[in-house]
Design brief:
Layout: H1 24-27, H2 30-34, H3 39-44, E1 58-61, E2 67-71, H4 79-96, E3 115-121, E4 130-131, H5 138-146, H6 148-164, H7 166-182, E5 196-200
Antiparallel strand pairs: 1-2, 3-4, 3-5
Helix pairs in contact: 4-6, 6-7
Region (Disordered): 1-32
């Protein structure tokens, strides 16, 4: 899929870049942000509806043929049923742990659901990588990252990343390996390069 844009004009293409939350004038009202749009409404706003089977990998390229995004699809076999298994497992774990819209962990700024983080971060002014602190949800997060279906998802995403963006992947891998060779930090999915994971428990 080719889009009418030049990736060299992206802010991130000019060097180190930090995403901004956006101005209030651009974000709209609370009602605007919570509105659920129909496909026809989005098309009327200028969006393009792309037909996709959800399985076949499709790269999205800029006007010079550079890959800027990928619809990574899914592997053959039982992957679809494993996704459903992971979804049901997360729902049950969240319910058993008392997580929901009215719990102290939610809603989150990304939606009307709690979000739990596990792994490593270097944000919030830390001078070096530190372990994210899930506090009372440690056991829940350990069960989530240990579930076979969740691990399968992480490993497929890791493989897709390495296939479609090999140079960026290699940079991630070098940082990951260096960090874990020097610091005793948790690793969610051994064999992958992802430093952290966010679980949306809605």
């Amino acid at each position: 899929i080719e889009v009418e844009t030049d990736a060299s004009e992206f802010d991130a293409a000019r060097g180190a870049h930090t995403g901004c939350p956006g101005r209030k004038s651009h974000m709209g009202t609370k009602a605007d942000k919570e509105k659920e749009y129909t496909v026809s409404e989005l098309i009327d706003m200028g969006f393009k509806h792309i037909q996709w089977d959800g399985s076949t990998p499709v790269p999205i390229i800029d006007c010079f043929g550079r890959i800027i995004a990928v619809l990574a699809g899914q592997p053959e076999g039982s992957y679809g049923s494993e996704l459903h298994e992971a979804f049901c497992f997360m729902q049950k774990e969240a319910s058993d742990s008392g997580l929901g819209k009215k719990s102290k962990e939610g809603p989150h700024k990304c939606g009307l659901f709690p979000v739990l983080l596990r792994g490593v971060t270097m944000g919030m002014g830390n001078p070096h990588p530190v372990s994210l602190n899930p506090k009372t949800m440690t056991h829940l997060l350990n069960r989530l990252v240990g579930h076979a279906a969740v691990q399968r998802m992480a490993k497929y995403q890791n493989s897709a990343f390495g296939l479609w963006a090999p140079r960026i992947y290699e940079e991630y891998r070098n940082v990951h390996d260096t960090m874990h060779s020097k610091l005793n930090l948790p690793e969610n999915f051994p064999g992958t390069i992802f430093a952290a994971a966010a679980f949306n428990l809605g």
